[in-house]
UniProtKB/TrEMBL annotation:
Pfam families: SecG. This is Protein-export membrane protein SecG. It is a multi-pass membrane protein. GO terms for cellular component: plasma membrane. Involved in protein export. Participates in an early event of protein translocation.
Length: 108
């Protein structure tokens, strides 16, 4: 479930990036109104801007919903977390068969 929502979240994020890059800025509207031919577009005279802005708002809403869902799922998972120190294996003890190295003699 987590992976499915994460995949949707990433695809929506990429869609938002693409939609924002496709949209025209505020300054482009003034030039288009003086004979830009925007009335013959697929969406009508103001339809493309309205359609893209509504689609961006919908994608942003889906992005926020998936974000909140991912936080909820991550917060309610029951995993046993261990610290790094607990994960490190203890060094093996020396076997009794291996002779110990004698300590050096210190001159008195």
């Amino acid at each position: 479930m987590f992976n499915i929502i994460l995949t949707i979240h990433l695809l929506v994020a990429l869609a938002i990036i693409g939609l924002v890059l496709i949209q025209h800025g505020k300054g482009a509207d003034a030039g288009a109104s003086f004979g830009g031919g925007s009335s013959q577009s697929v969406f009508g005279s103001r339809g493309a801007a309205t359609f893209l802005s509504r689609l961006t708002a919908i994608m942003a809403t889906v992005f926020f919903i998936t974000s909140i869902t991912l936080v909820y799922i991550t917060g309610h998972q029951t995993r046993e977390y261990k610290s790094v120190i607990e994960k490190v294996q203890q060094p093996a003890t020396q076997d009794a068969d291996v002779p110990a190295v004698p300590a050096p003699k210190v001159p008195e």
